[in-house]
Amino acid sequence: MIDRLSLSGRRAIVTGAGAGLGRATATLFAEAGAHVLCVDRDAGAAGETASAIGGCFAAVDVADRMSVQKALASFATGGVDILANIAGVASSGERVEDMDPARFEAIFAINFKGTLNCIQAVLPSMTAARRGAIINMVSSAIDLAIPTNASYSISKAAVAMLTKVLANEVGADGIRVNAVAPGFVPTGLSMEAAGPAVADRAAYLERWSKSAPLGRVGTPEDIAHQCLYLASDASAFVTGQILRANGGMTMPW
Amino acid sequence: MTRPFDVWRLDGRTAFVTGAGGAIGEAVAGALADAGAYVHCADIREEAARAVAERVGGTAVALDVSDARAVRAAIDAAAAPGNLRIVCNLAGIAGRSQRVIDLDEEAFDAMFAAHFGGVLSGCQAAVPHLRAAGGGAIINMSSEAIDIAPATIASYAVAKASISALTKILAAEVAGDGIRVNAVAPSFIPSELSLVRYANDPEGRERYLDWWRAKSPLGALCSVNDVAAQILYLASDAASYVTGQTLRTNGGISMPW
What we know:
CATH topology of the largest domain in chain B: Rossmann fold
Distance between the termini of chain A: 28 Å
Helix content of chain B: 40-55%
Number of helices of chain A: 9
Structural class of chain B: alpha/beta
CATH architecture of the largest domain in chain A: 3-Layer(aba) Sandwich
CATH superfamily of the largest domain in chain A: NAD(P)-binding Rossmann-like Domain
Number of strands of chain A: 7
Radius of gyration of chain A: 17 Å
CATH class of the largest domain in chain B: Alpha Beta
Number of strands of chain B: 7
Helix content of chain A: 40-55%
Shape of chain B: globular
CATH topology of the largest domain in chain A: Rossmann fold
CATH superfamily of the largest domain in chain B: NAD(P)-binding Rossmann-like Domain
Oligomer: heterodimer
CATH class of the largest domain in chain A: Alpha Beta
Largest sheet of chain B: 7 strands, parallel
Strand order of the largest sheet of chain A: 3-2-1-4-5-6-7
Strand content of chain B: 5-15%
């Protein structure tokens, strides 16, 4: 049964591959046998991941539709089996009453439209091949409704709904679409989002650890393995779902 | 096995699977054993349990999960050599069609005892042993019925919903002991048991299967191996940060938040 997890011979695109969850996922996919295109807006970071795992890289901001089209569609001409949309940015820390539409749009442009851009770039190739697995990164924020986190939470809720609608649209083409909703995982992104609260890093992590029944924060590997499950044939009959590796922080139906 | 698949391995761990003689149970027992676990295969039908145990190199257990004392004795015995780390409560019975307005208490109680009662007994017997082993994984069998509220099978759907609720509450209660509790909710899986109504009606059987295929965006039916793969994920350390969840291998028939 474990052999169903193999990605041997598969071609994968991982966005946000320069750091954190994206780098862990790109690394695990490569170890599972996939050839991985590492996408990140930071060329140095993308290149670093790519050279560590023997993949290739593209320095692309997912919000830039033209660049995404060019880079992803070019990789997809050789076939693409897996797209993991992990690139994202954190919230601006404003209450809803103070939300600045321009800052909201900047977050939405990356988290939602960036995901959509990448999906639209690879769909023709996946549809032609009549196979594919798309994994979108959402967040426990879609369950928690954390105050001052509206921009981020809303952009992730939008990605969750996109996941379901797309799953219904492309299931007949043999393409599966799922999302992962991690709990708190300390990464450059999540720690930066904490802002001043992170002055006492240990206390901040302790608070998050306690908010999960399992009593710890998540690791990038926890998330990467869930992505591997969803990318592989082990999940051949799983589509339109949101999987949560969150230590039990939320347990929706 | 090396990275990345080492955390999916279950070498040296003991597993206890109820309903192991059924189609899903057999696939699950096989997947856990393939991953290195020693599997106790429990089923109310002793012969079925024995056949699966022989195939997977495990131990057969004759067990009626509606008998709580028998469940405890069986799990105690399986745990005695130590390192019981995985308990899969899969045993269940097929539902009888009945509208809610006609639902009689006796039929409901029987269904509830077989599903919810069996899972509760399995959980209660498992927890002390998993705690003693320093942690472990419980996986309970829920169903697609909890999402689609199908008419005329209320007893079954209510029993399965109760199992999902139990899963979450127990997950919160025992997380501190390193025990993870999750459920799987597969969609319809063709098997002798699930198609018993069509034993002498091959045309009706095909129509029924096509109806299920058409409900899934993937246009296919759930297979026992799809469920087994999901249970293997939840049983393994690959899912060490996953608890209190109901995972669906349902072809997208329902997509709850």
